[in-house]
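2024-03-11 09:14:02 INFO worker-7 job=invfold-0412 stage=load source=structure_tokens
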């Protein structure tokens, strides 16, 4: 006798496929896509320890150790963001690593420390305190999300892309700005070839190959650079196979008030940029970041920063360049980025593996960066299209916030007369543009009486997700 479905079976709803953010892809695709994220952010992770280590006067071996430690802690922080524990972690495809905003104050701490052997312990102590304070402040800080309607988020996302583009232009000109061949034809040619390879792959291929076009472009550019004499395999031959960032390798953390205050300012800047990045990424992956998501993401940022000095790393924050990679490839799985975090941990434990990424010439990274960072700016423009730019108020908000945010890019010394602490904030176009956009939105759209309701961009209630503006006109 044939079995008949029970009423319970008939009532069972069909399985709902997971959101692309929670999707687990095939192993090969996870690995190659995760490696692509590492390639996109590698230069940004290793630059701060190289600069600070050089200021301290570390030997080549110690400098390699410090760089490996920052890779290792970036992987741990990325795990916190993507996989999450308890109420910690945005659980979005969000890459974390050493924030460049801390480079200036860290080098200032080094300069003010008489015994250079104490400089790194002082920095580590300041980062620990700033991270813990930021962790406690996350529930309050995240409430600022209600002041980020599309007119604000679109402006900030656009600024993120525009602010990153000069980085790729600098990479395209060569590895050493002081070199006699910086910006020479061979470097620009390599960058152009890499960009062309990525564009051709995106135009004429399909499926998986199309999605990893940037990774293929980086490999192709590196191979093409060999006859140019630009590809250097020395980092691989000189690197150790195994190495572990032993806790407090440079000494126990020291706590100095001035250093702590300066790093707390950096933490505020970092949390502001991370909030903007989470809002941008939420829009791109179609899972808008509400107050709870941002709170959890900020906790991961700050806790990752507090733990990082234990393994000789610096303050961690979101990496905006990887948002461009998500926007371009449309691979939205957070588990892909978690795999990238695994690669970072392995690189921290295996210096030879880390050196493989170091082989990629800067001009090749620059060519790929044009696509990555430009994609972020394009995503911001898409958001602005939905922000109601037919209203004069919103046009002014976008115009002024973009102008203020672009100042540090076009005139880097514009704020040279301001105190060093103030410049930590002012020299970040993303932070200044974000603050201006929020304040102007409040001024033009929320303060005062007698406003035309149709011209108002209302702030969101706490916890409300960012979405496209709803049609409010009544049906007839």
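2024-03-11 09:14:09 INFO worker-7 stage=emit residues=476
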């Amino acid at each position: 006798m044939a079995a008949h479905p029970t009423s319970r079976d008939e009532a069972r709803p069909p399985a709902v496929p997971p959101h692309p953010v929670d999707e687990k892809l095939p192993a090969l695709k996870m690995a190659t896509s995760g490696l692509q994220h590492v390639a996109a952010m590698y230069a940004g992770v290793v630059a701060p320890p190289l600069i600070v280590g050089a200021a301290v006067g570390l030997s080549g071996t110690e400098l390699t150790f410090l760089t490996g430690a920052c890779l290792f802690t970036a992987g741990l922080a990325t795990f916190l963001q993507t996989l999450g524990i308890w109420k910690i972690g945005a659980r979005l495809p969000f890459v974390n690593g050493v924030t460049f905003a801390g480079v200036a104050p860290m080098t200032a701490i080094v300069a003010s420390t008489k015994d250079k052997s104490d400089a790194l312990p002082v920095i580590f102590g300041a980062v620990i305190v700033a991270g813990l304070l930021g962790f406690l402040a996350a529930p309050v800080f995240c409430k600022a999300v209600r002041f980020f309607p599309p007119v604000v988020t679109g402006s900030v996302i656009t600024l993120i892309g525009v602010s990153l583009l000069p980085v790729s232009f600098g990479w395209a000109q060569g590895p050493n700005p002081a070199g006699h061949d910086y910006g020479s034809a061979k470097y620009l040619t390599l960058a152009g070839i890499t960009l062309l390879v990525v564009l051709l792959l995106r135009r004429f291929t399909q499926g998986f190959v199309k999605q990893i076009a940037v990774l293929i472009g980086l490999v192709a550019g590196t191979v093409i650079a060999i006859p140019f004499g630009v590809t250097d395999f020395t980092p691989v031959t000189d690197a150790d196979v195994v190495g572990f960032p032993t806790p407090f390798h440079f000494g126990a953390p020291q706590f100095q008030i001035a250093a702590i205050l300066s790093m707390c300012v950096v933490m505020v800047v970092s949390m502001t940029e991370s909030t903007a990045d989470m809002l941008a990424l939420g829009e791109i992956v179609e899972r808008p970041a509400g107050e709870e998501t941002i709170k959890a993401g900020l906790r991961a940022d700050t806790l990752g920063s507090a733990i990082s000095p234990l393994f000789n790393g610096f303050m961690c924050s979101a990496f905006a360049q990887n948002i461009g990679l998500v926007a371009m490839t449309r691979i939205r799985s957070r588990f892909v980025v978690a795999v990238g975090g695994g690669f970072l941990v392995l690189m921290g434990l295996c210096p030879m593996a880390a050196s493989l990424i170091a082989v990629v010439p800067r001009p090749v990274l620059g060519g790929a960066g044009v696509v990555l960072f430009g994609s972020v700016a394009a995503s911001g423009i898409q958001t602005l299209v939905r922000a109601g730019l037919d209203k004069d108020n919103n046009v002014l908000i976008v115009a002024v916030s973009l102008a203020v945010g672009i100042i540090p890019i076009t005139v880097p010394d514009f704020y040279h007369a301001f105190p060093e602490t103030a410049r930590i904030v002012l020299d970040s176009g993303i932070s200044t543009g974000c603050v201006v956009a929020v304040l102007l939105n409040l001024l033009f759209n929320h303060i005062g009486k007698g406003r035309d309701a149709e011209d108002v961009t209302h702030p969101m209630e706490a916890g409300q997700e960012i979405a496209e503006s709803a049609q409010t006109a009544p049906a007839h």
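2024-03-11 09:14:09 INFO worker-7 stage=report msg="The beta strands are 96-98, 316-318."
2024-03-11 09:14:10 INFO worker-7 job finished
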